[in-house]
Design goal:
Largest sheet: 6 strands, mixed
Radius of gyration: 20 Å
Oligomer: single chain
Number of helices: 12
Number of strands: 9
Number of domains: 2
Distance between the termini: 22 Å
CATH superfamily of the largest domain: 2-enoyl-CoA Hydratase, Chain A, domain 1
Order of helices and strands: EEHEHHHEEHEEHHEHEHHHH
Shape: globular
CATH topology of the largest domain: 2-enoyl-CoA Hydratase, Chain A, domain 1
Strand content: 5-15%
Amino acid sequence: MSYECFDLEVTDKVGLVRMTRPQRSNSMIPSFWNELPTIVDELSNSGGVRAMVLSAEGKNFCGGMDLEVFSANETVGAASDEKPSPGHRSRRNERFRSTALKLQDTFTALERARMPVISAIQGACVGGGIDMVSATDMRYATEDAWFSIHEINIGMTADVGTLQRMPKLVPEGIVRELAYTGRRWTAAEAKAAGFVNDVFPDHETLLDATMTVASEIASKSPMAIWGTKQTMHYTRDHTVADGLEFIANWNAAMFDTDDMAEAFKASLEKRDGDFPDLWPLSDGI
């Protein structure tokens, strides 16, 4: 299947998803918001992909939401002096809310995926770009990468995930400064704050490193990886006591003695484990 905004390649159970509009800094046009969750859900549902790397072609990772999205949506792009009739105001506002929720779900797809997702970031990662990478499991960047919660610079509040997810990743005071000022945040600053795992000198080295991490993840039990991702997301949003009960229940239901036996055997034989894929999910159910 061909996509307007993405290219997909699967090798050795690792999915490499590339944004392919470098001439527009991989900005997020209307088709982007449908294609990304479609790709992620298909990889997750297949059961055969155990890790995903999200990357981009060109100088910049992502320039954020394209102006085309605003012009295509009458709710967002309506003139400020437009005076809708009282009978229609609620419908316009409802459509705005529903659109925002749909855009949010595009990035929530990265969280609900049954495999970890790794971001490989170079150059600018602006606005919606931060919303997107904040929803991935890990972030790696080049030395020239920079981030900006740019929405404040165009007179709006970020509403697709940055303000909800980023404070769970770095100190809240840092997020507030970035969200209130819209300033550029360098890769070095992002690494120091723990937002990115590591920084590399160039894009090629970055991709090699992220694919290596993804391949290592893919060598583990996919059931154990899925359980780890689920547990960490649940614990992030709940108390420690709730999180402990969740993992007790998860392992009571999902613990696989065959996978553990294979992991021990592979370790003794100094090889990667040979684990079955997750069973595929049906899109029709």
